[in-house]
Amino acid sequence: MNLLVIRMSAMGDVAMTVPVIKEVLKSNPDINITYVSRDGFKVFFDGIKRFKFVSPDLDGDHKGLTGMYKLFQELRKDTNFDAVVDLHSVMRSQVLSGLFRMRGINVASIHKGRTDKGNLVKQSAQNSKQLKLTTERYADVFRKLDIPVKLSHKLPRKKRAKVSPIVRKEAGAKAGPWLGIAPFAQYKGKKYRFDKVGILIEELQKTYPKSKIFLFGGGEAEVQKLKGLWDKYPQTILAAGKMNLGEELNLMSNLDTMISMDSANMHMASLVGTKVVSVWGATHPYAGFMGYGQSIEWAAQLDMDCRPCSVFGNKECSKNGSYACMMDLPESLIVDKVKLIVPVAVKK
């Protein structure tokens, strides 16, 4: 059975499909998957058998309606698909899957649960419960096609990759815990207050004197901010701007824990079996976006009647723009969560 799976963005969402794809192929040896997404995400799927990654030129040849039709023709020419799995359900994927449906190919699309998520925002998490995990929503699309999928929701077995040359060059030998910090996110409601990141680093250095703290981010603006911390704190190592995605995954597999916002870094660390201290502000794990296999026990967040104020963190703060949910979150709470994962050495 040949399946066409579509999930073109964003990075974290694509990363969340990986455990589902692996389980589908593991449980169904007769299935082959062709996966359509952006080229940069290909590394997430390295080593998966009976799997082909197709990266369309979404800003060039495959842009717009005519581009989707061209992509449809190319895909159809290359493989005879038995069904299409739309894990995105946006205009691009709807057009592409619709073209296959017009040719008699069965199509299944994700149900995003917008009503339930909207109610979560209206009622606040204090009056709500955990919604269906996004990974289960992805699995449901395959189930619509009568393809059995059973997710364990456990972190993959921790397997530290051989340290890549760039990581070895930057970090040297490991003499204590390796900790990662990724303080950024797409929206303000999910970003840690940057002037508090230095305080967090100081607290971590006190708690783990032999640690090395790796700084993650993307884009020139974030790299420049992190360089300031790198210059100031001797135990920090700048990963941002120095490593490609594959090298970052290699590094994450060697971390003792990762401190991440509700962002792609949480999902990347999950892929390599690294436990994450996730930090939540305007958003909430109840919406279903917790990293695969990660525990809510490791989540750092404040109980507030206004949380979550949005599903994706893209709404203006209702508390006079203060974003108190993130700005008032103490560094000590994050460090306490790290201690649950990384034991503190007892002084003799």
What does this entry look like structurally?
Strand 7 (212-215), helix 8 and strand 8 form a beta-alpha-beta unit. The protein has 348 residues and is an alpha/beta fold. The longest helix has 17 residues, at 11-27. A five-stranded parallel sheet has the order 3-2-1-4-5, with helices on both faces. Strands 8-7-6-9-10 form a five-stranded parallel sheet, with helices on both faces. The chain is globular, with a radius of gyration of 21 Å. It has two domains: 2-144, Rossmann fold, CATH 3.40.50.2000; 165-341, 3-Layer(aba) Sandwich (Rossmann fold), CATH 3.40.50. The chain has helices at residues 11-27, 64-78, 91-102, 114-123, 134-144, 165-171, 197-207, 220-232, 245-253, 264-271, 324-327, 331-341; strands at 2-6, 32-36, 51-54, 83-86, 106-109, 178-182, 212-215, 236-238, 257-261, 276-279. The mean pLDDT is 95.
List the helices and strands and how they pair.
Blueprint: E1 2-6, H1 11-27, E2 32-36, E3 51-54, H2 64-78, E4 83-86, H3 91-102, E5 106-109, H4 114-123, H5 134-144, H6 165-171, E6 178-182, H7 197-207, E7 212-215, H8 220-232, E8 236-238, H9 245-253, E9 257-261, H10 264-271, E10 276-279, H11 324-327, H12 331-341
Parallel strand pairs: 1-2, 1-4, 2-3, 4-5, 6-7, 6-9, 7-8, 9-10
Helix pairs in contact: 1-5, 1-10, 2-3, 7-12
